[in-house]
Design goal:
The complex is a heterodimer of chains A (about 325) and B (about 260).
Chain A lengths: L22 E12 L2 E12 L2 E6 L6 H8 L7 E6 L12 E4 L11 H11 L4 H14 L15 H13 L5 E5 L7 H13 L5 E6 L2 H7 L2 E6 L2 E6 L1 H5 L5 E6 L5 H9 L3 E7 L2 E6 L2 H12 L5 E6 L2 H13 L6
Chain B lengths: L2 H18 L1 H25 L10 H31 L1 H6 L5 H27 L11 H27 L5 H17 L12 H9 L1 H14 L9 H21 L10
Helix pairs in contact in B: 1-5, 2-3, 2-5, 3-5, 3-6, 3-7, 3-9, 5-6, 6-9, 6-10, 9-10
Chain lengths: ~325, ~260
């Protein structure tokens, strides 16, 4: 990701790097509208070639819409969007593999037949497919289900099939739209192990709202909300400046005067209220927690303490800057 | 890979889907045959129509049943568009490097081929039980029937594809298809001759594209002379023009992945 100016007002303004060979994806002021809803609202982003780039944001923030535009399934009515320096078009899809948010396999066909059909649609010869498909099935742990109808696969297996399909034509750019939704922890690990093994061979754009997953696998991330990039950088960059520890307090009906007092303490960093929870960042939880209980012990139901994560960075950058309604 | 290879891969997938959907496969053949047996024999024996050759309504009904089979087949084939959209497969197809036209061509050509095979199976299955005239000879008669069935299915597949790209739900699509095609079936000569109808109904029959398919099938297999029929030249001229035009219309519609309420 190219360096974005720190001023939020200027974050969506990129330096001119048109047709830069190091950028896999570049968008500038892209807008897209569904009916009356503005899904993308001046989205500006630069994704360098190689590595895993995370696109992080809540449901409805515009991640899937951007994936559709990059896969040339829709055209942006406003703004510029390029993939490998070209506007997305059908022929460019040969260089792109896409895992959509929903499953796309034909339930009446077997696992092998689904991959074979996809391979033929991407111009692969039968002989090549007959050698490549078994390799992919082995990589994604589906060899013993090759001749079963996809309707009989578990949710996790279907997602692995989707990823295998997207890699069949060995794309240079892989677009992953929440690829691990509904996948259990073990299968998630297997899926990412397989994907990470191919790291360096291609650029991966991962759209997800799983911040922990993104923290683990992404080299760089962008936080997106309401169709705009709020900020971007490496996970370490985004976490820099946060206090060391994050405390999640289960505190239903936290009183406003208590929250005001808590904010006024010098050791307190960010304070965000989200339903029955209050998220606080501090440098030393061991000093903060006794003071908190002295302030409002009877109304506190529980406390979780962990090292500051990408999720905290997300709350800090996104909710802290634009989520006033979420904050007390 | 050429577009032809893509079309072939998609066509094989469509055919495989129909073959594996056993209930659809069997019912698409058995329903018209049962219709033929019960309605044909019921009318022949119960009402003894004197205007038909030897009062054999079953033989007369074969042409109409073949057309009806094609109507059902085109409807079911195009309904696969909705299954593919809802299962997500359509999104995958449209994310391939092929144009939407190529995707539609593969799917619809397979649908047409399935319709032709089903219609010809009905025609062949009925042959032992009815006395066809084959006034032009057996092989030319069969060629006429095949040509009429191919053009009919091309037209119906194009129509169904055009509707499927515009109607949001499968239920709505079936309703629109039934609403459009059932009246056409009734005034096509499929179930009763249109030659002796009141003039206004005869005009409707002349404007009805299905009339020309029924006429060609009757002339090819059932009729002992061309008297009282529209004629093969007119039948095939109308069918060919309509089949090409309507199929081209069906291919011109880009399939929708999502709906925004318009």
């Amino acid at each position: 990701m190219s360096q974005l100016p720190p001023d939020p007002a200027q974050r969506n303004t990129l330096p001119r790097t048109d047709a830069s060979p190091t950028l896999a994806i570049q968008t500038r002021d892209v807008a897209f509208v569904y009916g009356d809803r503005r899904a993308l609202n001046g989205l500006t982003l630069a994704v360098p070639a190689g590595g895993v780039f995370g696109l992080l944001g809540p449901n409805g923030s515009g991640k899937s819409t951007l994936i559709s535009l990059l896969a040339a399934q829709e055209r942006p009515p406003e703004g510029q969007l390029t993939v490998f320096g070209e506007a997305p078009k059908a022929s460019l899809r040969r260089r792109i593999g896409t895992v959509f948010q929903e499953n796309t396999a034909d339930p009446l066909m077997t696992v092998f037949e689904n991959l074979h059909l996809a391979g033929r649609l991407f111009g692969l010869e039968r002989s090549l497919l007959n050698s490549r498909i078994p390799d992919l099935l082995a990589t994604f742990g589906l060899s013993d289900r090759a001749h079963d109808p996809t309707a009989t696969l578990s949710g996790g297996m279907r997602r692995r099939l989707e990823v295998a399909r997207s890699l069949l034509h060995q794309p240079e750019l892989l677009l992953l739209d929440e690829p691990t939704t509904g996948v259990d922890a073990g299968e998630r690990r297997a899926l990412w192990d397989a994907l990470i093994a191919s790291r360096g061979k291609r650029t991966v754009l991962l759209a997800t709202n799983d911040l922990a997953e993104a923290d683990t696998v992404c080299d760089q991330v962008a936080f997106i909300e309401a169709g705009r990039v709020v900020t971007a950088g490496t996970p370490d960059d985004l976490k820099r400046g946060l206090l060391r520890e994050s405390i999640r307090i289960t505190w239903p009906g936290a009183a406003a005067n208590h929250l005001d007092e808590l904010r006024a303490w010098p050791e307190t960093g960010t304070v965000l209220v989200d339903a029955d929870f209050v998220h606080v960042t501090v440098d030393d939880a061991s000093a903060f927690v006794p003071r908190l209980f002295a302030l409002a012990g009877p109304s506190i139901r529980g406390i979780t303490i962990h090292a500051s994560s990408l999720e905290d960075a997300y709350f800090h950058h996104v909710r802290g800057s634009s989520g006033a309604a979420m904050s007390a | 890979m050429s577009a032809a290879a893509t079309v072939g891969a998609l066509a094989r997938r469509e055919v495989r889907g129909v073959v594996r959907s056993r209930s659809q496969l069997y019912s698409s053949i058995l329903t018209p045959l049962l219709f033929l047996v019960f309605l044909g024999n019921g009318v022949s024996e119960g009402l003894q129509p004197s205007s038909l050759q030897a009062g054999n309504f079953t033989a007369y009904l074969v042409a109409g049943t073949v057309v009806m089979t094609s109507v059902f087949s085109a409807t079911f084939s195009s309904a696969s568009y909705y299954r593919d959209r809802d299962s997500g497969l359509l999104r995958m197809l449209l994310s391939s490097p092929n144009s939407p036209r190529t995707i539609l061509l593969g799917k619809s050509l397979a649908g047409m081929a399935i319709g032709v095979v089903q219609a010809l199976v009905v025609l062949l299955a009925a042959a032992p039980f009815v006395d066809f005239e084959w006034q032009h000879g057996l092989l030319p008669g069969i060629a006429i029937a095949i040509a009429a069935v191919v053009l009919l299915n091309l037209m119906l597949t194009g129509l169904a594809q055009a509707l499927a790209s515009r109607v949001q739900t499968m239920q709505g699509f079936h309703l629109v298809m039934n609403l459009a095609l059932f009246p056409l079936l009734f005034f096509s000569g499929a179930f009763f001759p249109v030659a002796d109808l009141p003039p206004w109904l005869e005009v409707l029959a002349r404007l009805n594209p299905l009339s020309y398919a029924v006429d060609a099938l009757l002339l090819g297999a059932y009729a002992s002379s061309s008297e009282g029929f529209l004629g093969l030249a007119q039948d095939f001229a109308v069918l060919a023009v309509l089949a090409i035009a309507v199929y081209a219309l069906g291919l011109s519609r880009t399939p929708r992945l999502t709906w925004s309420g318009q």
